[in-house]
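A reminder before we start the practical. When you read a complex entry, don't treat the lines as separate problems. The point of joint prediction is that each chain is placed relative to the others, so the output describes one connected object in space. Small molecules and nucleic acid strands, if listed, are placed in the same frame. In the example below there are two entries. Take a minute to note the order of the lines before looking further.
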Amino acid sequence: MPRFIKIFLDRFKEYIVLILFLIASLSLISLNENPKVKNLRVFSLGIFASLNSFISNTYDATSNNNYVQQLEKRNAELMLQVNKLRKYGLEHERLNKIFEFVNTRKSDLVVARIVSRLVSKISGYFIISKGSKEGIEKGMPVVTDQGLVGLVIDVANDYSSVRTYENSLFKVAVKNERSNVNGILNWNGRKLVISNVPTTEDMEVGDKIIVSELSSIIPPAIPIGKIVDKESTISGILSNIIVEPYTKINNLKTVIVVKTIRNLQLDSLELNLIRRN
Amino acid sequence: MAILQLTIIPMLAIGSITPDVIIILIVAFALVHGQLYGTILGGVLGFLFDLLSGGVLGSAMFSKTVAGFIAGYFYNENKIEFNTATLFFLLIVFISSTINSFFFLLLTSSEIKLTVSYLVLEQGILPGFYTALLSLPIVIYNQRRKIL
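Here is the predicted structure of the whole assembly.
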């Protein structure tokens, strides 16, 4: 019997190793949300990201990063301010005599360098050079001066992992800034799409899409992109709205994390999907 | 190698199509040392890549294990030089890389519907071709070493 096992192992060792590795990897995939596996990811993020950072730093040594980062932070601040003012302007026109909604959220910006990136049309991730030491928390939005980039999903002491909008798991509540039509924006592997919008809704090519007040994760009014196309579904009742993002994430070197300081009462009432996970 | 893949290689990306230098290493290793070692190296480097990239843990491990296993099929101890110093190496890299990209995207796209043609053509063959092109210097280097 041991001889038979020995012959069997010797003959099929490649297949046995393959099967063992495949089982291990599939188990890891299914355990991705397990707290122990998450801890392992955060731990490795802290260790390996410093190596990535060193190489990335060496590569970028020639550019004046501090000055560029300061300018990018200023640009992002101005972008958020402009969007808030635009939003107030539109609200003022519509609700002339009613008090404006008091925005109870404050935001602070942290500039971070992209240490490494997983370029993929389906599972885009960045690792950025700021972590919990800078006050970054899971769920905070990541932007540039042009618009939304993604969400922080894991945080180590000095580094954070960001899920970009080019990711099949990315979903955000959005609205048309002009017509106030709401929808859920997601990534379909090629484009950003607001799926299943009734064709009767007022959505025109060129309209600006921003984060909706309905979003419990990302603060409202952060711009995302503009409508470039409308595709009718087979029934003709619904349509898919194609959105072209303002931020092109492939060439980014730095991003800005919006440290949203949330209203505690509002936070306790809201359905915060990130915290539920 | 995984760090290189995540820091420097994205600068070479054409759109979302990125060459995979880890696959080149796995293929070269599998062709020199055999299928078993190619599979193991694929699994280990895939796992490290998952840890470093912040992506779905296990996805690159799965795809690179399969790629290493497939590359190992071409192992022949009497043809190591032929396999690594001719354009046949590019073909093996292309096949392995295409399979790697296909499985990687298949495992990370659970939330969306993708067509097989999209997975194979756009996200499999194109990155595979780009990776094969990037492995050309290895073939040239091995040819020169062979001549000397």
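Discuss with your neighbour: Chain B has a mean pLDDT of 84. What might explain this?
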